[in-house]
């Protein structure tokens, strides 16, 4: 059966947790898509979901510019779950009343379930420990006709609601967050119980379907792909290799800004072990020359970005028969999420984003339906080594944005050596997989130290380790002192030219993860 035969549609009203709802549903092996709240009725009919979820959102339903979905979606006979703002909107559209809560409710609350059908199937009435997570300023004051209360909480007499005859339900709290202990059960009851979905969305079925779709689209054509060694491009390459074998050509550009041993390990795996057709371009000299004397982070980023496109394009031209360019675009880049916050460019991120326009090739983006954790599972399914799958994110401009100030061979060597030690110690202690990113940064200053009886005046390495879910926000990792001490000792003892290590204890925002 087609894995997309069953799906849940999430209409996004701007909540920070909309993507989390999607991930929770997919964890249950049901496919779902996020679309903006004002998706037309015709599009909804086309998508033909088995259920619709109205997400939370930062607005009040009575705001002048409050986002509203078409109320006619309730005529489609498709089950609907409203979460927080979504439940309030449903109440309003059915003729109930929503008001500013006298007491805004943020954080933990306990749910007193009154109806164990529908969303709360399998749960108990009067259970004292059904912890849920609230985050709302408005609340449902008066139920819409035909709705009744299915659960109350301390400050929400209408914490969950349900239509008498139709499959429309709503919750004031957020079932998608981990603090709602019964959240997964509630979402399962919605997708399996109320919507009647089956768990068809598995990574095995994704691989089978995608392989068939790629073969269909590409026919006998040639596909080229930029291989960086990162998780996304590695999975794209492995997936396409499975689909079209020799019709895939990968181009690996060594910009000289990689971590120690990175190029060798990527080439060893893909070229030697997997038999993939990989062209290795040694562009180390080109990038070092381009970056010579440059300290400004944005100029560094731009030069590396343009340089990459130039070299890639030159190489790809040699494959005149190439019709397609494969890219590792992921679902979070595709979702048109509703954001009520303005877009400001903080850093110009370099990835292969500029390539398609330049090259006039058709795009193949086999991962565009997947979240990062799903991409990892596809990689495992395809037999990529765990080491490649669980590799921490590494920025496109590489070590260039971890060397503050000018980039020289000597400074690259110092940073590479320090970086190896950081990674070794993080892996040895088991913290590598527990942190989002952990790396060394070379600072553009020298400090005084003493080694033996000698005065030293040498470089400083900053250690940056952060916890994060999606890199949008991050907190500095609370690593054990022993581990910090071991890293510091080893870096100062083993890396020539470094006499001091400092630990970065800034969160994002207001700082960023990378230093440049
Ligand atoms: P910042 O430093 O903005 O980084 O907090 C957020 C995440 O993005 C990574 N990063 C990049 N990734 N090209 C990339 O592909 C880039 O130019 C780039 N700059 C930063 C960074 O490592 C972190 O994971």
Provide the CATH architecture of the largest domain. 3-Layer(aba) Sandwich
Number of helices: 15
Number of strands: 18
- Residue share in helix: 25-40%
The radius of gyration is 26 Å
Largest sheet: 9 strands, mixed
Describe the strand arrangement of the main beta sheet, using strand numbers: 2-1-3-4-9-8-7-5-6
Domains, number: 3
Specify the CATH homologous superfamily of the largest domain: Class I glutamine amidotransferase (GATase) domain
Q: Give the CATH class of the largest domain.
A: Alpha Beta
Distance between the termini: 48 Å
What is the beta-strand fraction? 15-25%
Which structural class should the secondary elements be placed in? alpha/beta
Which runs of at least 5 residues are low in confidence (pLDDT < 50)?
none
Task: Provide a brief overview of the structure.
The chain contains 15 helices and 18 strands. The chain is of the alpha/beta class and 516 residues long.
Key words describing this protein structure:
516 residues; alpha/beta; Rossmann fold; GMP Synthetase, Chain A, domain 3; 3 domains; nine-stranded mixed β-sheet; five-stranded parallel β-sheet; 32% helix; binds xanthosine-5'-monophosphate
